[in-house]
Structure formats: C-alpha cells, structure tokens
Amino acid sequence: MKKIVLTAGLLAMSFGTGHADPIADRQALMKDMGRAVGSVAKIAKGEQPFDAAAVKAAFATMAADAKKLDDDTLFPEGTQTGGDTEASPKIWEDRPGFKTLIAKYQTDTAAAVAEDPQDLAAFQAQFRTVTANCGSCHQNYRVKK
User: Fold this and answer.
1) How far lies 18's CA from each of 3, 14, 121, in Å?
2) Interhelix angle for 95-115 vs 52-68, to 10°?
3) Backbone phi, then psi, for 77, in 5-degree steps?
4) Which residues of 30-45 are buried (b: 16+ CB within 10 A; e: fewer)?
5) Vertex 64, ends 60 and 69: CA angle to 5°?
6) The pTM is what?
7) What is the pLDDT of residues 119-142, one digit of tens each?
C-alpha cells in the first residue's frame, strides 16, 4: 500500500512540475489563430463563395483561442529576450495597453460567434472587426523578423 501511495505521489508531483514554454505556447496559439483567419480570408475578399459553416468554424476557433490568450501565462516577465520570438519589448513596457487589446479581441471574437453571420456582408463586417484587432496588436506589439 505504501508503494502505491508513494508512486501516486511521485506521479502527481511530476505533473505539477512540468516545464511550460510560454514562447512556444504563444507561437502555437498565434499560428492557430492565423490558420483560422486564413481559412476564410478568400471568402472575406470575395474570392470564394460564402460558406456559413466555414465562417462559423473559423470564428469559433478564434474565440476559443482568444480565451487562451492570457498575457500573464503566455508573456511572463523574462520571455521578452532570448528564444525565437517576435514579441516586442513594448508588451512588457505597456502592459495595460497590451491587456486592453487582448480584452478587445476576446470581446470581438465572442461577438462574431454570437452573431453567427449568415451572409457575406455580415461576415465581412465581423471579419474586419476581428482582424483589425490582429493588425493593431501586431503593429504595436510585434517585431517582424
């Protein structure tokens, strides 16, 4: 019995001490958001016919990813240097501004899901709103390599 308890305790401790890589985690999240945007970009440009299911799926992915966009977890102090990152030092210099943009993205993606656009014009309006967040954040808080 003692061996079982000891083994269970060691297993629990090993899960609790796993090392997260915030740079890799945020890059993976950004890539997922980028794929979601890219999956419907041609629809937004009028280069592909409107597809309500594709639009709904893309907005759902963006909103789910937005909920995971936690600045304290993904952009902790100390990750502004070192590693292969495009995160600008402005993130750590202007934390309130960065948090405001994250909150706006979260709100706008949730609104896009709730609206569930059923035609091209409605989708394009929501898409512009959501992707304007991406542009604002990247312009202010990203260093393009």
Assistant:
1) 23, 6, 46
2) 150
3) -55, 135
4) beebeebbeebeebbe
5) 140
6) 0.83
7) 999 999 999 999 999 999 999 999
